[in-house]
C-alpha cells in the first residue's frame, strides 16, 4: 500500500523483524505466540486432518473457485482423533489429503523410507507417510502444545512405533540425523525461517539428507521476483530466484517447482468460513478456558485480527502478489 507513511511502516517493520529474528530463542517465541493457542481454536477452522497449509482442490470440489460458484458442505469441527464422522470428507479435507499425497509422491516415499519432517503441525503428513506409505518418520516441532496433541493422534492411529516426535529447533538436530534420511519434508514451515537464515537452513537440510538418492520436498509462499527489491527490506518471504540461489549455494539442485498458489486463496476462505461460523460455539470457550483474564474487548480484537489475516492473505494469493509452490530438491553424491 503506497501512502505517505509507507516509509515509516517499512522502517518499523524492518526493526520489528530484526528484533524478532528467527534465531533459536526467537523462533521458539514466535512460534509459541501463534501455535500454542488451544488446539480447540485450530480444530474449529481447520479440516478434520488438522493440516495448516495450502490445500489442492479437486474436480469434485470444483477447483480453487468452487466455493464462489455454489454453497459447499462444511464438516463440523473435530475435537478428537476418535470423533465419529457425521458426514463424508468435505472439500477442504479432500484438498488437504490430495496435497499431502502429492508431497509424499514427490518425495518418493515408499515402504521402509526414513523420513524427516521439520515443522510437523498436528501430524497429518507424518501419519499419512507412516500409515499409507510404510515410512518411519522423525518429526520435529518447537511447539510443546502441538507435540502433546500430535502424540495423542499418533497413538490413536496405532503408529507410535513408526513416528517419533521431537521438540527441538532444526539447528539442534542430533548427530544421529547426519545423512540419515531418504526424504526431508517441510510443509508451510519455511515462511517462518527468516530470509537471513535461509542459506543455513538448506545447508542443514543437506546435512540430514542421505548421500545418495535423497530428496528434499517443501512448500513455501513466495513474493514475485519482480517485487523482491521493494519487499525484502521489511518482509520475511523469499522469492523464487532468492530460494534457487540459497538452494544451489548449499550444494543442492532444483528438480521441479509446482505452483499451487491459486488454491491458497480458497484455502484461506475455507478457514475463514469455519472460523466465523464456529467462533461463538468453539473458539470463544477455548480462549476463555486458556486465558482467564481476557475481556470482551480482547476477544473481539482477537476475532477481528484473524478475520483480517484470512482476508488479507486471500487477496495476496488471488492477485498473485504471493504464490505458493511445491519444491523438489535433490543432491549429488557427497562424501563429507
From TrEMBL:
Gene3D superfamilies: Vaccinia Virus protein VP39
UniProt keyword Lipid metabolism, yes or no: yes
Record keyword Methyltransferase present: yes
Source taxon at top rank: Eukaryota
Stored CDD domains: AdoMet_MTases
Keywords: Lipid metabolism, Methyltransferase, S-adenosyl-L-methionine, Transferase
GO molecular function: methyltransferase activity
A Pfam family this chain is assigned to: CMAS
InterPro entries assigned: CFA/CMAS, CMAS, SAM-dependent_MTases_sf
GO BP, sorted A to Z: lipid biosynthetic process; methylation
Family classification: Belongs to the CFA/CMAS family.
Protein name (record): S-adenosyl-L-methionine-dependent methyltransferase
Organism: Dendrothele bispora (strain CBS 962.96)
Amino acid at each position: 500500500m503506497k501512502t505517505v507513511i509507507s516509509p515509516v511502516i517499512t522502517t518499523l517493520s524492518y526493526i520489528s523483524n530484526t528484533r524478532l529474528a528467527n534465531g533459536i530463542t526467537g523462533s521458539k517465541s514466535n512460534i509459541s505466540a501463534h501455535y500454542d493457542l488451544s488446539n480447540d481454536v485450530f480444530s474449529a477452522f481447520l479440516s478434520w486432518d488438522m493440516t495448516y497449509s495450502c490445500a489442492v482442490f479437486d474436480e469434485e470440489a470444483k477447483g480453487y473457485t468452487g466455493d464462489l460458484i455454489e454453497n459447499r458442505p462444511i464438516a463440523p469441527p473435530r475435537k478428537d482423533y476418535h470423533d465419529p464422522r457425521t458426514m463424508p470428507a468435505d472439500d477442504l479435507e479432500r484438498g488437504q489429503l490430495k496435497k499431502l499425497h502429492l508431497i509424499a509422491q514427490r518425495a518418493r516415499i515408499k515402504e521402509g523410507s526414513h523420513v524427516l519432517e521439520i515443522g510437523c503441525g498436528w501430524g497429518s503428513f507424518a501419519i499419512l507417510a507412516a500409515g499409507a506409505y510404510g515410512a518411519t518418520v522423525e518429526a520435529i516441532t518447537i511447539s510443546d502444545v502441538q507435540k502433546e496433541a500430535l502424540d495423542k493422534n499418533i497413538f490413536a492411529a496405532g503408529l507410535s512405533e513408526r513416528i517419533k516426535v521431537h521438540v527441538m529447533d532444526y539447528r539442534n538436530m542430533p548427530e544421529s540425523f547426519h545423512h540419515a534420511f531418504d526424504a526431508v519434508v517441510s510443509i508451510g514451515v519455511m515462511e517462518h525461517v527468516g530470509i537471513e537464515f535461509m542459506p543455513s537452513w538448506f545447508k542443514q537440510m543437506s546435512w540430514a539428507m542421505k548421500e545418495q538418492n535423497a530428496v528434499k520436498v517443501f512448500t513455501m509462499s513466495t513474493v514475485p521476483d519482480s517485487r523482491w527489491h521493494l519487499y525484502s527490506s521489511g518482509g520475511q518471504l523469499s522469492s523464487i530466484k532468492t530460494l534457487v540461489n540459497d538452494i544451489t549455494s548449499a550444494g543442492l539442485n532444483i528438480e521441479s517447482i509446482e505452483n499451487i498458489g491459486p488454491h491458497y486463496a480458497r484455502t484461506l476462505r475455507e478457514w475463514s468460513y469455519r472460523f466465523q461460523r464456529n467462533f461463538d460455539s468453539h473458539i470463544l470457550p477455548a480462549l476463555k478456558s486458556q486465558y482467564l483474564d481476557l475481556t470482551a474487548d480482547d476477544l473481539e480484537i482477537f476475532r477481528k485480527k484473524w478475520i483480517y489475516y484470512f482476508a488479507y492473505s486471500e487477496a495476496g494469493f488471488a492477485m498473485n502478489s504471493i504464490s505458493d509452490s511445491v519444491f523438489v530438491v535433490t543432491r549429488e553424491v557427497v562424501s563429507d
